Amino acid sequence: MSIPIIISGLSVNIVNITDTIFLSHIGEIALGAAGNAGILYYIFVLLGMGFSSGAQIIMGRRNGEKEYDKIGSLHLQTIYFLFFASILFIGLIKLSAFQFLPLIVSSGDVLEQIQLYLSIRSWGIVFTLGNLAFIAFYVGTTRTRILGIITPAMAGLNIVLDYLLIFGEYGMPEMGVEGAALASNISEGLGLLSMF
Asked: Is 140 left (phi over 0), alpha (psi -120 to 50) or beta?
């Protein structure tokens, strides 16, 4: 049960490392912008992660008690809550990027790249929190093998899409930091669809 969870955690980190590696070839501004934007983005992810962890614990308890019907309703409530939270978080991320960050980021070039990244990446919070809801379900019901398959596939897709969209290879548009954000959104969206 624990090996797929470890693989799942490594896969999420591979997505972040891949973005960093590819963007380092573009330049320091793109790399710094994506790194700083990622910090803001993950503040909101961690809020969702806290809720999904609590739901996972309760689902695990219900699974141990063999009250399977309660797991389904709890999972549905988790999806609803995280979906509505993600809509709120999209607004807060955009507000922060265009109202708060200009007060603390001194470089206009870095600020512009952060805003470009977050204008696309903010929409991915729906997929990220949706994935957290399904991860909580699969871990809570001890069906972690699914995570050991889907999350590495998601990370692999992100690597390919990063290469294509950041650098504009094989006829794709060269998008830089926006390509990294779009690649992450697409891979997480397809991961969520697979988990569903």
From this structure: alpha
Straight-line distance from the first to the last Cα atom of the chain, in angstroms, rounded to the nearest whole number: 20
d(CA 35, CA 46): 16
Q: What is the DSSP letter of 176?
A: T
Q: pLDDT for 2-44, tens place per residue?
A: 665 566 666 667 777 787 788 888 888 888 888 888 888 888 9
CB-CB neighbours of 160 under 10 Å = 13
Query: Model confidence over 148-161: pLDDT tens digits?
Result: 888 889 889 999 99
Helix (H, G, I), strand (E, B) or coil at 26: coil
pTM (predicted TM-score): 0.88
- Find the length of the chain: 196
How far apart are the C-alpha atoms of 176 and 110, rounded to whole Å? Answer: 13
Give the max Cα distance, the chain.
57
